[in-house]
Fold:
Amino acid sequence: MADDVFSGSDEARSTQYSKYVRWATFDEPLALENGEKLPSVTVAYETYGELSPEKDNAVLICHALTGDSHVSAHDENDEPGWWDIARLVGKGCPIDTNRYFVICPNVLGGCRGTTGPNCINPKTGKPYGKDFPNITIGDMAEVQRRLVAHLGVEKLLAVVGGSMGGHMALSWAVKFPDQVESVVALATSPRLSTQSLAFDVVGRNAIRQDPHYADGQYYDQPAGPDVGLAIARMLGHITYLSPIAMSEKFDATRDQPKDVKTDFEKEFSVGSYLAYKGQQFTERFDANSYLALSMAMDQFDLGRTVEELARAFAAGKARWLVVSFTSDWLFPSFQSKQIVRGLLRNGKGVTYCDVESHCGHDAFLLVEDVATYGELVRAFLRNALGAGRHEPLDARWEDHSPTSIFHQSRRLDYDTILKFIPPDTSVLDLGCGTGGLLSRLREQGHTRLSGVEIDQRNILACARRGLDVVHRDLNKGLEWYTDKQFDVVVLSRTLQAVYDVEHVMDEILRVGRKCVVSVPNFGYYKLQDMLQREGKAPEAGVLRFKWYNTPNIRVLTIRDFEDFCAAKGITIHDFIALDTEEDKEIPADRNPNRNADMAVFVISR
Amino acid sequence: MADDVFSGSDEARSTQYSKYVRWATFDEPLALENGEKLPSVTVAYETYGELSPEKDNAVLICHALTGDSHVSAHDENDEPGWWDIARLVGKGCPIDTNRYFVICPNVLGGCRGTTGPNCINPKTGKPYGKDFPNITIGDMAEVQRRLVAHLGVEKLLAVVGGSMGGHMALSWAVKFPDQVESVVALATSPRLSTQSLAFDVVGRNAIRQDPHYADGQYYDQPAGPDVGLAIARMLGHITYLSPIAMSEKFDATRDQPKDVKTDFEKEFSVGSYLAYKGQQFTERFDANSYLALSMAMDQFDLGRTVEELARAFAAGKARWLVVSFTSDWLFPSFQSKQIVRGLLRNGKGVTYCDVESHCGHDAFLLVEDVATYGELVRAFLRNALGAGRHEPLDARWEDHSPTSIFHQSRRLDYDTILKFIPPDTSVLDLGCGTGGLLSRLREQGHTRLSGVEIDQRNILACARRGLDVVHRDLNKGLEWYTDKQFDVVVLSRTLQAVYDVEHVMDEILRVGRKCVVSVPNFGYYKLQDMLQREGKAPEAGVLRFKWYNTPNIRVLTIRDFEDFCAAKGITIHDFIALDTEEDKEIPADRNPNRNADMAVFVISR
Structure:
């Protein structure tokens, strides 16, 4: 069967180990979380790059269910690794092996060199088979910890993982909070969704009910449970792709299956694909490992509620990068958001992005979206290594998000907002754009800074500046934050672009002890005059948008905002009106409702 | 194993036939679409209600993959039928057996009485097994047609089906266009999505690779391919539920599996559920039927493009009701929309609703959303039977959709719009609400009327009035319609609530030879004066909304609209300005931009 029948896959890989694989054996018995013991453990691993003299540049990569230690080719003659399609690891890559010392072990329970069910059980002299103990994700992390220590690393710069590898990264943060500077969790979850768990159940049933499974002791038999394993793999493949990706791949050629050699059905193009993938998988993977690892994944459970997750993540000072993919239905975005909420609840530093993608769960392995998720990883790791030296990559302060309604680039309202923020306060900037205001606050010595932003390009810009910003639509409210979690919540030039104003106002007043809100004033005399003289609606006036294309969907005056506060029981503590065109303040006795084009309010409830 | 371990399912049914099952045998050989022949066919069926003397009230119900003829209990002592959870069929139910003569046959290839793989092959004297010919959905429809004729029915009032049953309904419309008055297609598709087809492939592989499958001749063996069939069914079950429904059902009790007697894994609550469902299914279903029917479903293909679907649906005059469910990922909404587009392309009468639901594909069988989909079926069938006698259920003309911006209930703009619509023209009303304008046009003798509406409650109101309205968000454009498909497109008091005005305007001008657009005028003197005197934004003035909660997110004057038309190359043919508060027209020389609160334009490009 030719390897290139279906291209672009991690499947078409050698069943041989790379010559760069190393082994480390730990003879100290391993006490498993479920109470059993393994007398000793061997770990197969590969490393890339050099450990710095300060030993501060080590990055641990945790692979997913069917991955292994070979994350990347070591040289031109080496086989490609499982992250090489995306070119994520290597010289000059996001996980830059010129900069970082990368460690990638095969996991406990795997079948690619590390102790697993296909290894000899010293008690019986035969492979463990189904007598291999019931292991957990935490056990895998413990084995990795031994390896990391063995390599002379006391604290990891970062632990990085996607999917089940993300479970291990989360587990590190929970079990060894003082041994990780930062965590990169891609396309993962605090526990599987019930739907995803159910698919695993069906896959395991297919393996165990295969008559060749022989109660797990098939190693000395002429045939193993290849049919069951192939069926589990076929099912897995469907869940790794998004429906749209499957459609793009197979819809047009539905009735043209490829002529693969298989005992499975090959009626449709997707059928021949699944048959090929399923059968191929049995050549490189062990069914008992599949059972052990998928069960460990299914039992992984940091909590179902935000409160439980907050408790799990309470210890340690790691900074986090969490990335999900919009079309991932196996580890859906809402689960990454749960992780983020658990972290925010503890005031942890976290950057989160829900990458717009067609690629489903596999997105974190593929090249299509690497410009976003790869660059987020690059920026995040750079800032982790260079913590304290935040060099803004973009020298210009101003951002040009669609809610910036005025012509000039200088953001006078920033100066005004900064006046209202006392030193040493915690600040949440809503609709923070590329992080201009947050950067200025950091320059002034603020440390407890957080941002919320809807545009994923801006999230990347903030990550490059080393700012902690989460990806979220304000219209959905601030349920991610607790009551009075921040000293100051800033809503700068954003309210007029929000649909559900009442909800957003309620939310910012709930979350902030004080709120600083800047709003455009549609009572500005130039706009009024335009309406009166030319009969044109305010929006069609001096602003750079027209009535039909402006992002500003809420038209209000300073008076309207004051009336709103009065009606809703909101206290106005302070107020500055601005004519940003003329770059000056409008004093209260100079009729700001006509003469200002913008106002900044300090309010609370 | 107790039936009530997992409740609320169609599974817990007797393996015995209802005493109301009848059989009809057709000895004329059946020429199958794939070229083979069946020497004779027997059909098991049940009927409910009485055929009217005019023979105009027959409704054919087509069941889904694992259903049968027992759609509903015939009396109190009878077993529940597969649509009885929703109470869809019966006296007083949406498919009212006091009103309609309901026919429900078991399908060709099934295992519940109709000729299928478990029946005796006259050539061999043994069950067909895998020698049962490769049948199609069209063959099933042909067998149903024979039965319908046998029962003395020349033309069906309606053919109704969900899921694979929907495929049969579509097939009737394509194969026998003159024998169906109307089609009700629920949770179905013109062809399976690749993802759904892939799940079927995995299920069939599990069955065929089961050693007890014995190449399909397992009927005289001690055991059949129960493991494979159960695995296919477990997989099916996951796809019938939405992720959110699974989560609601199993998340909280994840680690509390029920103690079901099973050879399958029962580690998690969802695992015990799947084990139970899978095992139970093998007691009532035949694996060869599962293979034959699922393959027929997978090969069903009316076309991948709208053009292909339009060709398929070209013949006949049936009216259509198409219903999808938002959380259905097995037969996702976009596929029902493809059907609707194919019908609209031909100018067919079609009502479409995408029912907001948590229940996934199973929604069409369950009670949760029956208040919408069931009532749509009820209203649609009533109008089908009573065609010509459209009695509006709601005597009040006016609708109160959120875009009705003025106080008074009388819609003066309707009168004005009606003036602009010549007799015998085709009209598309966008944002048609409960169908007030369309009803008035129908009263005036118009017949080629269509509506688009975003609110599913309004879709139901329109269906009750016998109007053809499709469920769609205008902001997504009018790609469902071709260039100049309608003589007149009406956009009444909706433009100001649209986000992407330019796109919507381009679209209505593309689809309509002429367009009648009514817009509010925010240059109205009362609003201007309020801004000038009180400093309040126009929206906060005399209208019943405030700036922060109005659905009107686009603020424009009559002048703005005129400027827009000039800038975009749009011709204004006619124009009437109104003061709807005073209930009068404002002539052109009386400064409508100040004195009118609304204007109606006739435009084209």
Q: What stands out?
A: Chain A touches chain B through 78 residues (CB under 8 Å).
